[in-house]
Write a structure and sequence with these properties.
This protein is α/β, with parallel strands linked by helices and 459 residues long. The chain is 30% helix and 21% strand. Bound molecules: N-carbamoyl-L-aspartate (NCD) and zinc ion. The site of N-carbamoyl-L-aspartate (NCD) has 9 residues, from loops.
Length: 459
């Protein structure tokens, strides 16, 4: 296979940015060396930046289950256009990914449509068994996700945005008991446990109809997040599990997480661009595009999250890309389903935030290096270094981009970041050395492969 030589760019190498030649053979980076040192078919990227492909560890493909909302084709078209070369999909598709069989059929579907590499999270139900987790791990799950406040429809095989009820079809959400029961198996497997951290008891106590955005904030208080974090951290610490908190949204949640880390918990934190860029004040303009769980909160929460990124307490920025149809989102605040798309704007919104913080290159850590470590991919992705997959994003730092719904490739075009202007543009994207996006056009080929965490034996 021909060697490719990326030349002329400022490259984000593991020791920091520099003027390097990058050569690629057979989809893998073979050298990162001084200008003029590389040989191969030249790809001239002069004046641009070369960054490691984004890894969005929190997306909802809706596939299989909800083709009107999204599928792996539209999800990964948006990902490719946004410089995200790997997505890790959440298990609340239908049927939910609660068994090895469900994971394998979802993987086959994703392989047929995905334009970028993909990994799959597995679901923990209150009825899950240790054997099921072992089988899910051998089938390739990146780790396990527990939705603390969401019950499960047994007949529909679906996770619901609802606290349990007396309906016999509804299985109770997984709780601290479920996690304590399954903790030894998770520890043995060595995979991360991801939590949707909102305590159902607190959500229940604060339930109310949503008329105003203030009602949303009162119904899902920050204590729901901090209590869920402290309680799951206590279980994780006891069993030495790697606990990952999805979409941290509040200063109080952060404080609980930092206390848990100080106490010795192996805990990583994720937040999302919408919590870093938006506050309650944006609701008047954005409406239900901004309705999501947990909610976008107050300016003081946003400040605390930005500060935690700066202090490297938060190591992952992911999107919680959660599209719904226009009709669903056109309902009132009470009835519109929670969730916003975001995979296409992840990288650029992080570059812009990192630029505001004085070092735009930090973005590569938040969306590539940190996520690779979480998903067990640190040996193959997340860095521009010899031996790593040639997942490369070419960014023009002299062009700006305004997030415009018309340019979105996701089926749901309206998201919480719409209208944001950033001082960068993505010009081309490579997946394992193959161009998948260039100058506004996607390549027609689907080339995505399934990624599996290192160190887990294949069944
Ligand atoms: C997600 C969805 O729609 O699947 N919605 C959301 O508001 N975040 C579910 C989730 O991740 O909690
Ligand atoms: Zn989610």
């Amino acid at each position: 296979m021909t060697e490719l030589l990326f030349r002329g760019a400022t490259v984000y190498a593991p020791d920091g940015p520099g003027e390097f030649d990058v050569t690629v053979s057979d989809g893998v980076i073979t050298s990162v060396g001084p200008r003029g040192s590389g040989r191969g078919k030249a790809v001239d990227v002069s004046g641009n930046w070369l960054l490691p492909g984004g890894i969005d560890v929190h997306v909802h493909s809706r596939d299989p289950g909800f083709p009107d909302k999204e599928d792996f084709g539209t999800l990964t078209a948006a990902a490719a256009a946004g410089g995200v070369t790997t997505v890790v999909d959440m298990p609340n598709t239908v049927p939910a990914v609660d068994s090895a069989g469900a994971l394998e059929s979802k993987a086959a579907l994703a392989r047929s449509r995905s334009r970028v590499d993909f990994g799959l999270w597995a679901l923990i139900r209150s009825s899950s068994t240790a054997e099921q987790l072992v089988e899910l791990a051998s089938a390739g799950a990146v780790g396990f996700k527990a939705y603390l406040g969401y019950s499960f429809s047994v007949s529909r095989k679906q996770v619901l945005h609802a606290l349990g009820a007396s309906d016999p079809d509804l299985e109770a959400p997984p709780d601290y008991g479920t996690l304590t029961r399954l903790a030894p198996a998770i520890a043995e497997l060595g995979l991360p446990l991801v939590i949707h951290a909102e305590d159902p008891g607190i959500l229940h106590a604060f339930r109310r109809p949503f008329e105003t955005y203030e009602d949303v904030l009162e119904a899902r208080p920050a204590e729901a997040e901090s209590v869920a974090i402290s309680a799951t951290a206590s279980v994780a610490r006891q069993h030495d599990i790697h606990l990952h908190i999805a979409h941290v949204s509040s200063a109080l949640g952060l404080q609980a997480a930092e206390e848990a880390i100080a106490a010795g918990t192996r805990l990583t934190l994720e937040t999302c661009p919408q919590y870093l860029w938006r506050t309650e004040a944006d609701f008047a303009r954005l409406g239900t595009a901004m309705k999501m769980n947990p909610p976008v909160r107050r300016a003081s929460d946003q400040q605390a999250l930005r500060d935690a990124l700066r202090r490297e307490v938060i190591s992952v920025v992911a999107t919680d890309h959660a599209p719904h149809t226009d009709d669903e989102k056109a309902q009132d605040l009470e009835h519109a389903p929670p969730g916003t798309p975001g995979v296409q704007t992840l990288y650029l919104s992080c570059l812009e935030l990192a630029r505001h913080m004085g070092d735009p290159w930090l973005a590569a850590r938040w969306v590539s290096e940190g996520p690779a470590a979480l998903a067990g991919l640190s040996e193959s992705k997340g860095r521009i270094a010899p031996g790593y997959d040639a997942d490369l994003v070419v960014v023009d730092p002299k062009q700006s981009t305004t997030f415009n719904p018309k340019a979105m490739r996701s089926r749901q075009k309206h998201g919480a970041l719409q209208g944001l202007k950033v001082s960068f543009a993505i010009t081309s994207v490579y997946l394992r050395g193959v161009p998948i996006y260039a100058n506004g056009r996607l390549s027609t080929r689907s080339t995505g492969r399934m990624v599996r965490p290192a160190g887990v034996p294949i069944a």
